[in-house]
Amino acid sequence: MQLVLMANSMRPELKGTVLRIRAAAEQAGFSCLEATETDTEVPPGTDAIVVIGGDGSLIRAAHLACRNNIPLMGVHCGRVGFLTELTEETFPEALRRFAAGDYRESVRSMLAISINGKPPVSCLNDVLVFKSSFSGVAQLDFAIDGNRVGALFGDGIVVATPTGATGYSLSAGGPIVANGLDAMLITPICPHTLHIRPVVASMDSVVEISVSDNCFVASDGDEIAKLQKGDVLSITRSCDTTRILSFTDRNPFRLIAEKLT
User: What is the pTM of this model?
Assistant: First the structure.
């Protein structure tokens, strides 16, 4: 079996961890190759991508994984670790179980983002529309499935998948999503409009955000465009999905209590 190892390129201190992970995998009979966050293809015959880093590293690797329809296995070397389940110590046992087919595969929904009708970009975690200046507020008008929700005056808005529910959306006051719920979370950021509250919509809904001020839009933490007055952002379910391997039962409520306190 073949693994592709991918580590956070901004953290050179992980080089030793990568070497030990590779040694453990080769000792278990796996062949190993390495990839970077800028790669768009993986070698034929790859069975899984092993991400060494934090949740952000796994989210960035999701684009390579979904493009090549290969599952992700996360080794936690970050701060929080909602998505990177394994540790360097538990990795060898996970490899044994992976080879034996003793694991669960979680198929994560992704969002498709289109600006002014252009070809969409997929994201795993969230879409952020945020004001372009430190002062003042942004004016964003949004609708869900053609039904106008209203005008939002505030710092911005975040639209998250269930995977992204424990990220920026949660910090902005968005809801926690129970296991098995496939929904889109729309959370205003520091709203000056009291009637605009967080909304939970179907993952198949179409959310349209019309911009009345200069803003920027980010997908999974990376800025993808600058928006100007009159631009329209459309967000709905993507055809892409991300497959994440799991080896333990994890209670999301307990994880939040443990990792965010």
Answer: 0.89
